[in-house]
Predict the structure.
Amino acid sequence: MRYYTYFPGCSMESTGLPVQLSVNEVCKSLGIELKELEDWTCCGCPGAAIDELGAVSIAARNLALAEKTGLDLVAACSCCYRNLLNAHLAVVEDPRMRVKVNEALASANLEYKGGVRVRNIIDVFINDIGLETIASKVQNKLNGLKIACWYGCHQTRPYGPDHFELPRWQDSIVESLGAETVYFPLKAQCCGGMQLVSEERVALKLVYKLLDNATNNGAQCIATTACPLCFTNLDANQGRVNNRFKTKFNVPILAITQIMGVAFGLKPKALGLDKNISSWTRVLAPYLQVLV
């Protein structure tokens, strides 16, 4: 069993619940125990654009709590991963920022010394668990299933460690499950999730481009990063895209951990598939022994 401190972030118990459920089940199958960070708060997203010190301090509070556990801090949400790692680097690399942040943390009797290793869950799957172990858990090989792996912004940018423009980690996982990954040039393009309220037209155009690129390259479904915002933006907005652009997209949107869970033989409900908005049964039914 491998142990990690887990930072779920704000969306995982609401719109991101399908992602969280699948993360939980897949981690159990892989011998990973995620110990939720006690008394965690928001990572500060996207506060850095408004108040850098405030945003870093908010994230650093979580880092200070995680530092006490002595374990790596893992986030499934790409935005949370980026913000926590950004705060860690700000404190470690900038002495003036470190002083200001720890002055703020002192009001809560906390201090961050810079000792936390911030990880993304895909990093853990690839580098700690390994593709051979993942492949060994497969009960339902996904032979014949063509999947476009979409990473979004912050799983690889700005910090990596997968290639920031041409990432491969999720593709490698999908291929270890027996599926085929399709050519997907927009795999690291933004979905516009943060603009959906303020710039709906821009956000929907970005979703349109992703759906169009995936389907034109033969994808039967899209495997998204485990980021709940990215997942929900594609999963929930195909109808709005179809209305605006007069298209007929009906692409199953699945978190990478939901795809893994199906291959591992886990029940759809346990993986949160009953909470997905896009229809998935037509592509996954051949690989599922139980559809409840």
The first helix runs from residue 17 to 29. The domain at 2-121 is CATH 1.20.1050.140 (Glutathione S-transferase Yfyf (Class Pi); Chain A, domain 2).
